[in-house]
Structure formats: C-alpha cells, structure tokens
C-alpha cells in the first residue's frame, strides 16, 4: 500500500488521468455515447497507458524541453467540445451572427462559469500532454502525426472550409433564384389580427410520450383545437432564436453578413434590411404591431430587427421590468413567463381598444436551455423543481401558453384573430438530450382561429414555410403561394424540403453567397468620424463572400 500511494503521487498518473478524463468527456459530447460511458473510456485509457508504460518507458531518455505540435490543435478541439457541450450542435452561423449583433445583456450567467471551468480544465490537459511528450520519447514523433489528424478531423475547421468554398463554388445563386419576394396580392375585407407565440426551444419532438411522458401534454391538448403541422424541420442558420424568428417571419435562413462588420465589434445597425418580412407586410396593411419578450431586446439584434421591420412597440426586459408589481421576481434573462403573459394580456386589451387590425409577437423563456426557467405559477402547480430537469420546464411552458390562449378566448380578445404557436428553434443541449437526438426532431407549429379546421397535417417542411402559411391562413393572397424560400403548407404545393431534401438545402446554405447579399443589401459603410486624419481609413465590413460582391457595410453606430 505505501508503494501504491507513492506511485499515485507521481505526476505520471495525474497526467494520464487528466488526459483520460478529457478523452472520455470529448467522446461523450461529440458522439452519441451516453454520459455514463465517460468513466469507462477513462479506465480503458489508463489500462492501455499502464500496459504501454506511457510516461514511464522501460528505457527512459533524458527529459526534452520541447513544445508539442498538438497544443494548438488540442485548443481548437477544446473550443469545439465546449460549444458542443453547451449547445448540442455547433452552428458557425450562430457564432458569427452573435459576434456581429452583440452579446451584451444576455442572461446566460451559468455559461460564463462553465466557460471558465472549461478553460481551466483545458489548461490542465495542455500541461498533462506536454509533460507526457517531454518525459516519454516515444510520443514525440507520433504526436506530430496526431497534430495533423486533430486539425483535419476538427468539425469546426471543416465547417470553416465549407464556408470558404463559397468563393469558388460554380453556382452561388441557386438559393437566391428560389427566393420569391413576399407580396400580398389581395386581402380580406376584414383582415384578422395575428397573435404569434414563440415558445423558446419547445420542439414538437417532446410530444413523444414514450420518451418524454406528459411534458408536452398541455400543448397537445391545445392542439386538439388547432391545425397542427408535423414534420417542420430545422435547416442550418435557423437554429437559434433570432435565426428562427427570421426564418419564420422572412422566409429565409439568417446568413450572417460576415465575421466582422467593423473594427470595434459594435452591434449591427440593421438586421436583414434587404428583404421584407412579416412586419413590413402587415404594417403596409395598417396593422399596429407589437413585440414582447422577457429578455433584453438588445441581445443579438432583436430590437433592431423588429423596429426596422414595421413594429411600433418593441418591449423587452428594459421596458417591462419597471411595470412589475414584484421587481425582484425576475431570472437572469429577464421576466418569467407568467408575468410576461399577464403583460401580454394588457397589451392585447390596449390594441383592441384602439381599433384596427393588430399583430403581436411574443417570445417565451421557460424552455430555454440548459435547464429552463419555470415560473412560480408552474412551481405551485407542478411541485418542487430540481433545477436541471428540462421536462419540468417544457411542461411549464406548454401549460402557460395554453392558459394564456384560454384566458384571451374567455375575455373575447381572440375574435377574428389567428393564433400561431411555434417553437423558435429546436432545443440546444439539455438534460433530455440523449433521448431527443435518438430519433428525428421537429419544430412545433400550430394554427388556431375561427376559420381554422382542427386537424393534424403531416408535411416535409422547414420553419421558412411558416411565413406564407400564416399569410394564407389570415386570408391574404400571395404570389404563387410563396414568400421568401417558403411555401404555404395550406396550398398543397411542394416545399423546398420536399423537392430537394434537407441535406441539399444545407449544403447550398454553406456554399452560396447571392442570398446572403440579398439579405444584407442596404447596409452602408460607416461614415468617417469627425477629425479623421488624412490617409486614415475606416475598416469596412468583411463579408463571407467573393471579392466581386458589392460593398455592403454598416451604418455608422453611436
């Protein structure tokens, strides 16, 4: 026992343990191995290390003061593993867009702590691997090959390479040719109001009772009175909140303008200014439009998007928190959904009093990854919350929205109103992740209204098809039953997903630029500040696109 204790105090086993834990963690995150496989991988590594005498060769050589070639590739893999562990799937478009649009006023405080812990663990891995390479000469030639394998096999670098392929792709305009500018050709004599309720991350996949029990049941009950669309898939560049809202309101994926738009990383002055979206179309028809969400509208360009696309009132945490009767009843993102929905009822009452058609877009927070933010009303109904079970938060979100619709209906506030209930995107990594990714995943999308026949419709579609479907459900006549890249699911016309398949569309998104140019057309170069010395220049926006693109840069920002 004393000899064993001495061996365990030797840095060899600590270094090998750190490497083994990282290996197990990385495999569990980036593959579909269950998390309980992590210790098995670690133990397997340690057994192999003992058999091969790694760190203690039979014929040792002097310690070499070398730096492994693999350190940088390991750092890049560490970044990729962190993104996968945090979000489930890495969408480079999301990374680029949030760098552009601004990430201040976010509510993910736990993400910061996680990032710090991850960085510390990554430093330990680099130290452990450096020690192994310096002490065990057998690793020195092999790790150079390992460095190349790590670089070539990193999915994040592969994705960057695919985006770079847009420069040399033969046809970078196929998606743009599929785009149909949204146009309302005719409207009903008394156009209906619109209530669009986005449920954060509340995907239709949760409706599977065998995997998720009754978590989705309150929403399924509401769906018995609605036209429910099953099969609404998620394309690349539509898998986070702003991208999901733009896909369903503009009929296009959110292809970022570029990694950098100026030298200060200032927020975007406009969001997809080159296309008309739901708000633009309804504002032209005299609709009074409001947006309400519990989180800050400064995050990710949310407020900029809605203000620039026809909305009269844009209300987030900053505008709504002063109206709370209990100022301390907030979470790290902002308002809980029970108080948000109370304020939503007040806003609809106001819109009804002023007369004329109105539209209200609402964004919930209860189902937000990784654990959700269940409201007090849910805790009183569902009992104690363990702080991690996402199914508890899913049930909370589903129940709250059903209660909101029933309350509005009972007050007579939904007369001549189309109610749309939709998930903004598929959820990111949560406690039920392994069950979610085990089978095909779908978004929530349902319509309720006086003219809507309750039924279930199985489709092959994407969230881009939501815009034309909403417009036709409201009685508007649109060109070719299409808007953007979307096709009305009420028309019987084939969607792009049906005609070409999800993978083909995703490949096009990664390789094309013409649609990206269309989205961001109208961005102007920033004006040089006063007193700019002769010869000094202002950094223009850098776009992920060929050099022959027209210059499209940002407005001057304050």
TrEMBL record:
It comes from the Bacteria. The keyword Ligase does not apply. It is found in: Cell membrane. Pfam families: Sulfatase. One of its GO terms (molecular function) is transferase activity. It is a multi-pass membrane protein. Keywords: Cell membrane, Membrane, Transferase, Transmembrane, Transmembrane helix. The chain crosses the membrane at residues 12-30, 36-54, 66-85, 112-133, 145-161. Residues 241-475 form the Sulfatase N-terminal domain. InterPro entries: Alkaline_phosphatase_core_sf (IPR017850), OpgB/LTA_synthase_biosynth (IPR050448), Sulfatase_N (IPR000917). One of its GO terms (cellular component) is plasma membrane. This is Phosphatidylglycerol--membrane-oligosaccharide glycerophosphotransferase. It comes from Halomonas aestuarii.
């Amino acid at each position: 026992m004393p000899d064993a204790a001495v061996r365990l105090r030797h840095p060899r086993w600590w270094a090998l343990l750190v490497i083994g834990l990282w290996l197990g963690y990385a495999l569990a995150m980036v593959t579909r191995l269950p998390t309980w496989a992590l210790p098995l991988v670690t133990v397997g590594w340690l057994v192999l290390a003992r058999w091969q005498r790694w760190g203690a060769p039979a014929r040792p050589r002097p310690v070499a003061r070398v730096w492994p070639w693999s350190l940088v590739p390991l750092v890049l893999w560490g970044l990729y593993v962190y993104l996968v562990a945090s979000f489930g799937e890495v969408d480079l478009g999301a990374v680029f867009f949030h760098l552009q649009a601004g990430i201040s006023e976010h509510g993910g405080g736990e993400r910061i702590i996680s990032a710090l812990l991850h960085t510390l663990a990554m430093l330990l891995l680099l130290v452990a691997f450096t020690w192994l390479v310096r002490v065990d000469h057998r690793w020195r030639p092999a790790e150079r090959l390992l460095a190349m394998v790590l670089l070539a096999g990193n999915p994040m670098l592969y994705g960057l390479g695919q985006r770079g392929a847009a420069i040399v792709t033969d046809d970078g305009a196929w998606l743009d040719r599929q785009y149909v500018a949204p146009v309302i050709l005719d409207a009903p004599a008394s156009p209906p109001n619109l209530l669009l309720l986005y449920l954060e991350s509340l995907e239709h996949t949760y409706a599977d009772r065998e995997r998720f029990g009754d978590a989705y049941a309150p929403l399924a009950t509401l769906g018995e009175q609605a036209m429910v669309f099953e099969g609404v898939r998620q394309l690349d560049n539509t898998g986070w909140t702003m991208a999901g809202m733009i896909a369903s309101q503009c009929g296009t994926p959110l292809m970022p303008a570029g990694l950098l738009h100026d030298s200060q990383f200032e927020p975007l002055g406009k969001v997809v200014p080159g296309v008309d979206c739901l708000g633009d179309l309804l504002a032209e028809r005299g609709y009074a439009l409001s947006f309400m969400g519990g989180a800050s509208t400064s995050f990710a360009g949310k407020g900029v998007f809605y203000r620039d696309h026809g909305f009269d009132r844009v209300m987030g945490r900053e505008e709504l928190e002063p109206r709370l009767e209990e100022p301390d009843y907030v979470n790290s993102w902002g308002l809980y959904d029970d108080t948000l929905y109370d304020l939503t009822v007040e806003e609809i009452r106001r819109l009804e009093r002023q007369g004329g058609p109105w539209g209200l877009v609402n964004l919930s927070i209860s189902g937000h990854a990784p654990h959700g933010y269940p409201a007090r009303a849910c805790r009183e109904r569902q009992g104690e919350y363990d702080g991690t079970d996402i199914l508890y938060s899913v049930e909370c979100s589903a129940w709250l929205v059903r209660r909101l619709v029933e309350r509005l209906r009972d007050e007579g506030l939904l007369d001549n109103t189309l109610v749309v209930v939709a998930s903004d995107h598929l959820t990111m990594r949560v406690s039920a992740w392994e069950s979610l990714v085990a089978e095909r995943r779908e978004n929530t999308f349902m319509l309720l209204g006086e003219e809507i026949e309750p039924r279930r419709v199985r489709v092959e579609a994407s969230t881009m098809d939501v815009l034309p479907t909403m417009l036709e459900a409201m009685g508007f006549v649109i060109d070719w039953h299409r808007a953007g890249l979307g096709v009305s699911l009420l028309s019987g016309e084939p969607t792009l997903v049906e005609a070409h398949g999800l993978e083909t569309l995703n490949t096009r998104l990664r390789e094309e630029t013409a649609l990206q140019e269309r989205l961001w057309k109208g961005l102007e170069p920033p004006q040089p500040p006063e007193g700019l010395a002769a010869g000094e220049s202002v950094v223009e926006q850098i776009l992920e696109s060929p050099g022959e693109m027209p210059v499209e840069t940002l407005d001057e920002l304050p």
